[in-house]
Amino acid sequence: MNLILKNNPYHYELEKLCRLFYPEEQINVVENGDEPPTDDQISACTELQKTGGGIHMIARLICSGKATAAETDYVPGLFDDQNPERQLAELLYGLLVRQTGFEPRWGILTGVRPVKLLRSLIEKDGQEQAYQVFEQAYHVSRAKTELARFTMENERHLLKREQPNGFSLYIGIPFCPSRCAYCSFVSMTVEKTAQLIPAYVDCLCKEIQAAGEAARSLHLTLQSVYMGGGTPTTLTAEQMDRVLAAVQDSFDLSACMEVTVEAGRPDTVTEEKLQGLLQRGVTRISINPQTMQKKVLHAVGRRHTVQQVLDAFQMARKAGFDDINMDLIAGLPQDTPAGFADTIDRITALNPESITVHTLSLKRSSRIFQEGQEPCSGAEVAQMLDYAGQKLLAGGWRPYYLYRQTRIVGGMENVGFAKPGKESFYNAAIMDESQTILACGAGAGTKLCAPSGSGKLERIYNFKYPYEYISRHEEVLQRKAKVKQIYEQLSSF
Prior knowledge:
Blueprint: E1 2-6, H1 11-21, E2 28-31, E3 43-50, E4 55-63, E5 66-73, H2 85-100, H3 114-125, H4 127-137, H5 142-159, E6 166-173, E7 175-176, E8 188-189, H6 190-193, H7 197-217, E9 221-229, H8 237-250, E10 258-262, H9 271-279, E11 284-286, H10 294-299, H11 306-319, E12 324-330, H12 337-350, E13 354-359, H13 367-370, H14 378-394, E14 398-403, E15 414-418, H15 425-432, E16 436-440, E17 445-449, E18 457-461, H16 466-471, H17 473-481, H18 483-490
Parallel strand pairs: 1-2, 1-3, 6-9, 6-16, 7-8, 9-10, 10-11, 11-12, 12-13
Antiparallel strand pairs: 3-4, 4-5, 13-15, 14-15, 17-18
Helix pairs in contact: 1-2, 3-4, 3-5, 7-8, 7-17, 8-9, 12-14
């Protein structure tokens, strides 16, 4: 697909808008270029023309040799617009809806954090005006506006727990038993990289110690710990114990509200590992089936059975875990609305404390995208999410954090549902981008937030791949040593 921009700089937002409608297309952006012939591939053109007293906006869409167009004058200040970007996107959006017959439930919103946007609008203009902007300016459906509102209300009490000098710790374990077809994370299969794990754990423990030194020098208070991946329980019980021991030795955990470890692949869960986690103060784990349909598990390359999911869950309960999350994905290849409803029914019957319902995102680096596997349609995903929402709300789970991704099927969303009192503070804080996150491990990104609440952020990224993280570990430690300096600079804002 071609996206031609004439006399406007709105590359980023307009490209994301086109991707909502054509998620599998490569979008070629041409600035101030000529429009292609009408028999060429799908093309969208947006143009701004200066008139005597203002700006005229034009959008054109060329598809299968046919061109359609819409145009109007820019209205300064409409819905507080400071420039033509939203109104130009709205003009193109109308053409895309008519061409495809698809009307995204989130309208022209393409951002990751719609709940954060809604809250900022309410703080600025009040509830009534904020909801009007969501539904009339951004074309968000009433159901999704209500979901954003409900999520915002449920996350509010979590965000109130943030301390001015508080932070969270993220620990990345980029190893998995096998690589799932939908995965785009920096995760390596144990079959290929098992020899790297001992050295990786050594380096990770050193970085955790360095992060602890930075936190102490800044007098920061640790409020939550999250060990993700990959699959952390790919490590042996002894290796996991070393990492968690490094956390206990390097940080003051007296104010820490939760310690989460993703035990994502049920085939990596053992009684020994679970007991080790409990002994090291882990309060919350995540056992992630993604689906309870055998054929779907096979299609996406998850080498575990439905029975192993059930066994891992019961094993965790028997060990003493009273805070278990389970992740599911709507839209996976070979799934159906009926199959996903069965998955929801079977997971809710287990009664975990929280259930996170993701929508498949067609990341370019995933095997699903590269091999051209057929995911569910946007309409099917909408059915799946509708059923999940109704079932979870009826069962006492409440949405408390929400985010969206690029190339997400149907332009939908990912939502974390939890029983009251079992929400994850870490998930709410990282989605709100209002708290510093010190991150350790390959591919991990430290996020430093100004303690003043100004919204100013600075990021420090680690090397992506485990072998690079190991071979260049001195550079990783040097970057951690800069945390104090950067944070102190942010404190002046």
